[in-house]
């Protein structure tokens, strides 16, 4: 089956939906999402959106906090663009129906309501705009509602993208080739219900598939976060960068019945303290900012404490705050914790670190364009230069909003400036010679092994020896997956396995290349930051033959 659309968006989080709404006035939009449209990292984002609204705050302070967190690798121009563009994008969300917490009904400056601004680790001022403790869900629901009402936008739920479709054009003068460029003209997509592979042709293709937390054994991410956009972009020949910088959120709930449940950093922002099993605080031994240190510092501190004490978890305690305040500020967290038998208004919460956010990704310019023509990337899939070596808390939704706006504007211009219909007929999916799988155990076994080896060897603390072991094993797994992939018909599990293996290999290569410790990358053999040799991005591009 062939689908033709003007704009193809792969992913249905905040970045993809914002782009869809902004380009829908210029053409038809197809949104491909591998489960239900609401299933996204955005929907689970608890903390909020960092932006400057307080009179005691400034763009310069937010910029400096972002640069400090990024540990020397942020692109200053990108940081400026995102920080300065934040307030307008948040007002835009409010105009389309998103409700954020405000301080009662008092009018603010220029007639606007003052926000109830939270504070999180790494921020020097209160600047987190939030909707209680489920900001992402509020934003996602409003954007989804708007998108479903737009006649130019069509959703393809339960469809999983397999690979991008690219081709090269050659402009000839006589017999001499003078130009050779790569273009993206769509993607092959598996319909999970019919098991048929569909061909989506598009003038503009956008990767907005979110992160890659499922590459690791323990993660705060939903099951969909398998690095699909990064893997597809890399296989198509797009440049990727800085994949060694995986952010581990310090505080995921430690409970045998809990799966991927994050305890928001905002809890520490409201006075929550990290304790060991004996009830003793420990963050003062690791950073002057104590419990409000940046995430990389806190995650390593907890990892060190767990190794030192042999305990299974540390504890996050906010029970010293009034119960009414905790319940009002964190209604979802209180409810979820109670479901697991924990009353956070009266007792500490057991927590451990877990893979949370990918700071690297597919490299883009300041308009979301990759180095493959007509292929864009936004959100966690992209490496824009904002986060550097470590993301500042609540800058992720901010980046998604600002870059969605920039990418949408550029994509409309890009499409208008180029003739339509220049693409040749796109060949259909070819599965001749393949059969239905009779060895599904290979997929399950390798899926589990990848996630365990990444957690054990390429986690919060790394070494050359661990990375070398991981590289040897991932090479063997990649060979097994490749042989299986070309012999059997594709399935959702096989597509995701192939993608997490690709992203795992890229993380390992980037981590092994960087011979220093910076931001989220800590190697015990090179414990110090080395600006002389390593103040640069780690860049990888697949060599396409033919």
Structure description:
With 546 residues, this protein is an alpha/beta fold. Among the domains are: 251-354, Flavocytochrome C3, Chain A, domain 1 (Alpha-Beta Complex), CATH 3.90.700.10; 440-532, Fumarate reductase/succinate dehydrogenase flavoprotein-like, C-terminal domain (Methane Monooxygenase Hydroxylase, Chain G, domain 1, Up-down Bundle), CATH 1.20.58. 36% of the residues lie in helices and 19% in strands. The chain has 15 helices and 17 strands. The relative contact order is 0.16.
Instruction: Assign an overall shape.
Output: globular
Structural class: alpha/beta
Biggest beta sheet attributes: 7 strands, mixed
The level of helicity is 25-40%
Number of helices: 15
| CATH architecture descriptor text of the domain at 251-354 | Alpha-Beta Complex
In the CATH hierarchy, what is the superfamily of the domain at 251-354? Succinate dehydrogenase/fumarate reductase flavoprotein, catalytic domain
What is the CA-atom radius of gyration, in angstroms?
Answer: 23 Å
Features:
single chain; 546 residues; alpha/beta; Flavocytochrome C3, Chain A, domain 1; Methane Monooxygenase Hydroxylase, Chain G, domain 1; seven-stranded mixed sheet; four-stranded mixed sheet; 15 helices; 17 strands
